[in-house]
Each structure stands twice: as C-alpha cells, then as structure tokens.
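User: Run a structure prediction on this.
Assistant: Running it now.
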Amino acid sequence: MTDQPEAGAAARASNPFGVLDVRVPAPRGYPGQDSSRHARRLLGRAENPDRPGEDILRLLLGARGYGIERLPEPRAAAAGGRRRWCSVYEHAFLLADDSELCLYELEHDLTPDRRLVCEVYRDEVAAARAARRHARAVAAG
C-alpha cells in the first residue's frame, strides 16, 4: 500500500483488465490422477450413440491430469409434475502437449423408467441440446 494515490492509479492503468474491471480466471488445476483410467471409465459409461469415439480416447490416454466441474445449467427439472435429475459436468483433461481437451457429461433420469443415464458430448452446446431434447420427450409423455 502506498500513500501516493497516483501510484495506485498508474498500476491500474498499466493493467488493461483492471481498467475494464474484467476478471481474468485463474489457471485451471488438473488434480485428478490416472487420467487414462478416468477417460476410459467416462467414455465407457456413455450411452449416447454420438459419444466421442476412439480418436478422442487415444488423445486422452496420454493426458497428464484432469479436473471435473459441475456446470450450473441445466438443473433438475419438473417434468410431468415430478422432479427429475439433470446435471452437466465438464471434464477437462491436460494433454501431453499442454493443451486442454474438455468433454461434457450429461447425467440425467429423463427416461421413461427414470433410470440414471450418462451421456458424453464433445461440447457444452451439444450436451445442453440433448438435455432439452430429453426434457421435452419426458414432458410429452
């Protein structure tokens, strides 16, 4: 801290994000160990026919870490007067070349028998679209 107000203003001016009041996210951590095992389990339990295939699994087998984050949407929804479960998780993998590959797991019970289902998509938009499609189908009966 300084008693010179211009020093603080100069520091803020040298940081374009501070001037715009934009928060830059902290670097992501990849605390998960045994990424190849996690990738095999995630893709192995996916029930959707358009899930990522062997090409994505091959990339993930060399991953050095992974992290999982539950995304805020979609949420559990009321369908047919009963509360249903629907959640999306982002699985971020740190690849051997330091790039990141994300997969999106849609976990839901939007099935006629309310069985818990796992689907995996290559992008968040596809997972959200699938969630809406399942919710409409359940609501239609």
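The two ends are 63 Å apart (CA to CA).
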